[in-house]
């Protein structure tokens, strides 16, 4: 076996990869980060940021959350609207006062990059990875510029289309996939929030979501039929539909310039196991989840925390069982989040066409779920637990603080 160039090579400088890099670098583990984007591109990507309590606590414990606390916002409840009625769910009260935080993903990336580089960490920007392969107790990474990296471990956090995922032989894993029957038009508008919390609206025209971003910017989601394009949705139509779907007596929708529009297809995927040899899959490389419930970045950072612990344990013990433990612990947590996201998605969306044989039955199921969320404390507690996410110390593997 040839000598490794680094102990850990991290593929992808997103939330998962940078969390790995910071946690391991702080423990004295040699790491290097590769990403195909420039630094400007990485910190300029506008992404939503709903942070579970465990995510914030992990960052807190490792000195990575100072700006988050200064500029992020705490959220403790959300509102559901349907058929002219509405109710507010104080999910924090159902879960011991534990809140959510809203802090855009690009700000997390900025903070993690700043911390890693300030501590002497190395990021190779604008470095495209062509291939990744696990061999003889190492991982070999070949880059488009001709560079070859050999590492004892690789954190494959370069997304669902990255080289890491393609570095795992198809026969070595099982992929579970689902294409959902819903599509969103996702929007950012220069408009002050119209409520102090997230609003989910179920309407016969389709789902609408009002999500907080900042004091001057609001994120919206609109369910749209298959076949529709951005061109089918001029601003006037968008605002008309948002007013209709989010309508509530005495409530006014704040409007403004829409500066971002995208069509989002809904897909879910889980890869098992989440490693092949010394190549470990994290975040979207291992699992894709719908945006419903805001679980994607939180799962990725939880993957990163467990991977970092896996490396530290294995460096101490040399036991193959410690490597197996990563996937054994992460897969159940991923499926728990998938189930919640799927349930919330189907609770709030309209089934097109409305005259299909089972549409009325499905709508009645939606109404029952909303009724239970409003009237059953046990149902509301279960929703709160899944929405906020598990405590950090309740997450398998989190007992070994990094």
Automatic annotation (TrEMBL):
One of its GO terms (molecular function) is FAD binding. InterPro entries: FAD-bd, FAD/NAD-bd_sf, RIFMO-like. Keywords: FAD, Flavoprotein, Monooxygenase, Oxidoreductase. Residues 5-340 form the FAD-binding domain. It comes from the Bacteria. Pfam families: FAD_binding_3. This is p-hydroxybenzoate 3-monooxygenase.
């Amino acid at each position: 076996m040839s000598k490794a160039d680094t102990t850990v090579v991290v593929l992808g400088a997103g939330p998962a990869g940078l969390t790995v890099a910071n946690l391991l670098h702080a423990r004295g583990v040699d790491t290097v980060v590769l990403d195909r984007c420039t630094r400007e591109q990485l910190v300029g990507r506008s992404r939503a940021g709903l942070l579970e309590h465990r995510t914030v606590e992990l960052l807190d414990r490792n000195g990575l959350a100072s700006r988050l606390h200064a500029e992020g916002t705490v959220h403790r409840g959300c509102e559901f609207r349907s058929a002219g009625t509405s109710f507010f769910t104080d999910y924090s009260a159902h879960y011991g006062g534990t809140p959510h935080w809203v802090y855009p993903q690009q700000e997390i990336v900025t903070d993690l990059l700043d911390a890693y580089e300030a501590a002497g960490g190395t990021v190779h920007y604008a470095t495209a990875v062509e291939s990744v392969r696990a061999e003889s107790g190492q991982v070999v990474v070949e880059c488009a510029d001709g560079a070859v990296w050999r590492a004892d471990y690789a954190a494959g956090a370069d997304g669902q289309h990255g080289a890491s995922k393609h570095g795992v032989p198809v026969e070595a894993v099982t992929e579970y996939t689902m294409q959902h029957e819903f599509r969103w038009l996702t929007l950012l508008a220069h408009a002050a929030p119209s409520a102090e919390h997230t609003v989910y609206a179920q309407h016969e025209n389709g789902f609408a979501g009002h999500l907080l971003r900042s004091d001057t910017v609001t994120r919206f989601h609109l369910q749209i039929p298959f076949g529709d394009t951005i061109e089918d949705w001029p601003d006037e139509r968008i605002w008309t539909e948002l007013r209709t779907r989010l309508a509530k007596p005495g409530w006014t929708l704040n409007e403004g310039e829409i500066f971002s529009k995208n069509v989002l297809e809904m897909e879910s995927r889980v890869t098992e196991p989440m490693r092949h040899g010394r190549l470990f899959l994290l975040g979207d490389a291992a699992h894709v989840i719908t945006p419903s419930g805001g679980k994607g970045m939180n799962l990725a950072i939880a993957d990163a925390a467990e991977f970092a612990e896996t490396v530290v344990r294995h460096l101490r013990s040399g036991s193959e069982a410690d490597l197996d433990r990563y996937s054994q612990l992460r897969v159940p947590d991923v499926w728990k989040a998938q189930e919640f996201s799927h349930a919330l998605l189907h609770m709030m969306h309209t089934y097109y066409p409305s005259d299909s044989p089972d549409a009325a039955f499905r709508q009645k199921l939606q109404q029952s779920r909303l009724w239970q969320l409003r009237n059953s404390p046990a149902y509301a507690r279960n929703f709160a637990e899944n929405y906020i996410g598990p405590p950090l110390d309740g997450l398998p593997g989190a007992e070994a603080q990094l």
